[in-house]
Amino acid sequence: xxxxxxxxxxxxxxxxxxxxxxxxxxxxxxxxxxxxxxxxxxxxxxxxxxxxxxxxxxxxxxxxxxxxxxxxxxxxxxxxxxxxxxxxxxxxxxxxxxxxxxxxxxxxxxxxxxxxxxxxxxxxxxxxxxxxxxxxxxxxxxxxxxxxxxxxxxxxxxxxxxxxxxxxxxxxxxxxxxxxxxxxxxxxxxxxxxxxxxxxxxxxxxxxxxxxxxxxxxxxxxxxxxxxxxxxxxxxxxxxxxxxxxxxxxxxxxxxxxxxxxxxxxxxxxxxxxxxxxxxxxxxxxxxxxxxxxxxxxxxxxxxxxxxxxxxxxxxxxxxxxxxxxxxxxxxxxxxxxxxxxxxxxxxxxxxxxxxxxxxxxxxxxxxxxxxxxxxxxxxxxxxxxxxxxxxxxxxxxxxxxxxxxxxxxxxxxxxxxxxxxxxxxxxxxxxxxxxxxxxxxxxxxxxxxxxxxxxxxxxxxxxxxxxxxxxxxxxxxxxxxxxxxxxxxxxxxxxxxxxxxxxxxx
Length: 507
Ligand code: XMP
Prior knowledge:
The protein is an alpha/beta fold.
């Protein structure tokens, strides 16, 4: 595997994904909490960082067991750190070095740069530059503004590059990464979805034996793929619980339940809608609504899990971005994410041991694993849907009637997106029922009914998002369908706010 030491760059996860795309396994560890360096590690990558090597609090890794012993590649800050620590000079650069640049010289006989063309576009993002190289550092590529754009350390298998090979705009970045990972580190490209399924199922069999496992399904990809893996390992000893909180999309509960049955999963479907709706009666504060929904879920799940005698494990669809230890920005000790098992005062199911078969995978890898296990594209490409469901899309208090209205509106919108081939163009879409009535006229009658807002956004991770520029004709058609088809709604608006400053959900 490849070890990536993280100095807090926003691109670190992207490096890891690029390595994984080459079918090579890698792990991200904080620079100040590295794993034991053993022979499973074939090479190391030092990430970028928001810090300058000249900062007082600049992150400093311990490379004693790495430099000169294992192949090493420093990217951006990583490269500057090597130059700075081993006799070179890193200074604030007087030219802007952000964005596109082209390689004006390339030593293509160098192992790292084999196949990289002269003029190749690279992506720069740094405020500092390596002014003076240590005497045993040899330049292997330059751009017009950055002479020391890439270097090799003589007598070692160590390299530094000032540009970011992991970003899309470095057009030959994946060639460079492949040269390093496969050519220089000698990694086998055998980390494939099929191989992952095979080894994970074998490990789960070994770990779980004849034990019973409980797993909460949400209808989303992560929990579904986690369940499929555990099911493949232990079959009927996996008990899945799927709760209808009364806040799901129209027909979602029955449709998804059917889907789970065709996958052969042993699913207990719990229809708890009334419990949730009555717990929410009269509550308008968004955070209180979230807490009520969360607590009701825990109660229902706990009661159901008690019906499974002798359960030993709780299966969870946790994925890699949730468990990567973050590098804290002030350079202090990094946070560790703790699993919440064996803690007193929790519902009984939380006292079970936790099994998380996806905790090494990125979202796109979860999808590929799902696909390799036979999950169809339609299911894999479903939009994200928040846990509290329509509860946080009905602004203000929630009633069964409002849920019904919003389910109809959402159904018209989503099925319209599918019919017009727009569903996969959009990262997430949904409708909000506003606590506002407006005047309208239908036939000869004045109406005074609800307003709904449609929201569709493009995003990669939900952290930032922009509103989708859906065609006017499409919006016109959907608006018409909603107003004519859903009693209680006489006005439709489209949300054109980006995140930030708005959020995707309205509550
Ligand atoms: P916001 O509204 O914060 O949403 O821009 C970002 C993403 O997170 C989802 N979301 C939630 N998911 N429980 C969830 O499981 C929640 O309470 C919750 N709030 C927001 C939202 O749908 C979007 O994908």
